[in-house]
Amino acid sequence: MKLLILSVSAGGGHINAAEAIKAHAELYVPDLDVEIIDTIKYINPFLDKLIIGSYLKSIKLYPSIFGMLYNFAETDDGLATVSSKFNELMANKIIPLIDDFNPDIIISTHPFSTEMLSILKSKMKIKKPVISVLTDYAPHSFWIHPNIDAYVVATEEMAKDMAIRGVNPSQVFSFGIPVHPDFLVNKDRDDFFKELELDPNKLTLLLMGGSLGMGNILEVYSQLSKISMDFQIIAITGNNKKLLNALNEATENSDKPTKIVGFTKNVNSYMKCSDLLITKPGGLTVSEALISNLPLAIFSAIPGQEEKNAEFLLKHNLAIDLGKGNDCEYKIQDLLIDNNKLDLMKNNCKYFSKPDAGKNIIELIKNMTQ
């Protein structure tokens, strides 16, 4: 089987979902030829730098404006038209790639690439089936387009919402957001903590802000240091070297044993060995936490999709809300003291997790290519 996965590296989540699908396909599909393409970067690296750079800058410096655009795009046809025109120009650039690779099926994990594929199918430039895998806990109009053969969504609630938006229910599969197979493997806590030089018998808090190390992490760490309880901290800074240096300095004035980690592909290990995850609510991060049965304390949600993710978590008692994280000392302390609430949140995580998402997506691929 030849499988082509199109994505866009706007943050780590979309690409991580693509890599998770690839990893599951390699486990379950014999004679597999699979390619992941960072779509805009493939079309034009300079354009990718401009678009993705502007996007990341806007959510960092002007999150409220980004949130307004997110909500505006749900109802404004003009903004959707501009996006469609841009994607139509871009879509023609990936025709040679698709023709050369000649996939049996195409998967998209980003709304840009999803719309490009919709455009190409409407023009009969491609005839192979297309699956769009949504990477958040609420749909948005940017994801929904004609000629997409199947949608994979995170929850049953999303599937119902997609039907309200006019998508044929038979085309929507509430399998969940796929995570890497490594998250399905249990870790030996003692050995892992020995590697980290931390105590396996001590309460462990995991602090992170996605692959970009975004959010008010430094202030949250300062708040954690004030809590008069015995626990240790693992802080993952992603690609944010400035944050890495700042946290290393902050640990010098903290009595909490702390392990600072930069960019890592071993997030599964850190999650499996933690008792509470303190994080921004990115879609992939949420899915990884649920599969790890790891309760969340969420902060610095980006207006728009991350706020929708936060709504899902809070509605189902999977997380507590720290707001911007500026004044979260007592919220976290109260949660850590309340073992019953932590246990309930952990059980809720297990209930809402979708550990078979990757495997089910591969079964869907097989069924659609028979």
CATH top level of the largest domain? Alpha Beta
Strand order in space, largest sheet: 2-1-3-4-5-6
Percent of sequence in beta strands: 5-15%
CATH architecture of the largest domain: 3-Layer(aba) Sandwich
How would you sum up the global shape?
globular
Number of helices: 17
Helix content: 40-55%
- The run of helices and strands is EHEHHHHHEHEEHEHEHEHEHEHEHEHHH
What is the count of β-strands?
12
What do we call the CATH topology of the largest domain? Rossmann fold
Keywords for this structure?
370 residues, alpha/beta, Rossmann fold, 6-stranded parallel sheet, 17 helices, 12 strands
What would you note in describing this structure?
The protein has 370 residues and is of the alpha/beta class. It folds into two domains: 191 residues, Rossmann fold; 171 residues, Glycogen Phosphorylase B (Rossmann fold). The strands form two sheets. The chain has a six-stranded parallel β-sheet with strand order 2-1-3-4-5-6, with helices on both faces. GO terms for molecular function: transferase activity. It comes from Clostridium simiarum. Belongs to the glycosyltransferase 28 family.
How would the blueprint of this fold be written?
Layout: E1 2-7, H1 13-28, E2 33-38, H2 39-43, H3 45-61, H4 63-75, H5 77-91, H6 95-101, E3 105-108, H7 111-122, E4 130-133, E5 150-152, H8 156-164, E6 172-173, H9 189-196, E7 204-208, H10 217-226, E8 232-236, H11 241-250, E9 258-261, H12 267-272, E10 276-279, H13 283-291, E11 296-298, H14 305-315, E12 319-321, H15 329-337, H16 339-352, H17 357-369
Parallel strand pairs: 1-2, 1-3, 3-4, 4-5, 5-6, 7-8, 7-10, 8-9, 10-11, 11-12
Helix pairs in contact: 1-17, 3-4, 4-5, 5-7, 10-11
Main location: membrane
Protein name: UDP-N-acetylglucosamine--LPS N-acetylglucosamine transferase
InterPro entries: Diacylglyc_glucosyltr_N (IPR009695), Glyco_trans_28_C (IPR007235), Glycosyltransf_28_UgtP (IPR050519)
